[in-house]
Each structure stands twice: as structure tokens, then as C-alpha cells.
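Intended use. Records like the one below are meant for learning the mapping from a protein sequence to its folded structure. Do not use them to infer anything beyond what is encoded.
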Amino acid sequence: MNTRCPFERLIVAETHACSRAMAVTRREGAGIDCNDACACDRCRSLQEFFEQVGAEAFGEVEDRTQVPHSTLLKIQIGGLAGTAQCLNLSVGEKIEDLDQVAGQADGNLEILDHEVLAEAMRSARARRRRH
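Structure written out for the chain above:
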């Protein structure tokens, strides 16, 4: 069973944290696995939803596999911030427990406002642009 966290790059970079995260070492370096398969499935569903909304927000709908990794990270960061906003969760710029956000969003994806998410994703993309 694959329990590789879909948000592992955010956790490894320490921009976000999760109560279910387990540090692992992979061939390519540090990684994060989830200690609960059901929680990991929730996060994967949320990630897929973010990719759909993000691809639409950035006009990259045709082939999501071709979206640059840096854009995917910004989609995640903005998607998580927008989700917290839509669900009225009190979180800072660094979300301390991704499992809490994913748990609250589980089964509630239809109430998340795509415009709020898209704007949060665009904002993350603009804020994190490298010079």
C-alpha cells in the first residue's frame, strides 16, 4: 500500500506540517509517508481536487501531467489556504495540521468555492515567484 503523502514536499520544506506525517528516507532524499491509509486517501482526493481547480485557474486544463512541479506546489499552498478560508478554519500561513484541513474538507468538496480557491492559488503563485 502506498502511503506516500501527496503534500510531502510542503512538509519536507517545513512550510506546512501534519500530525500524521512520518519522515522516511527515499533514494531521492527525505520524504514523508502517512501513518494512516484512510487519511492518506483523503489527502489524495483533496490533491486531485486542487489539481483540477488549479489547472482551470492557470489555464492548463488539457494535460495536468504537464503542469510544472513548481506550479503544483503553488496549487497546493493556495488550495490549502483557500480550503481553510472556505471552511472558516483558523490557520496561519503555515498550516500546522494538514490532516485537520483534509478531514474537514472530506465529503465537503462541493461546498468549497472554486473562485476562492483559484484566487488563493493565483496569490500563492505570485507570492512565491523566484527572481
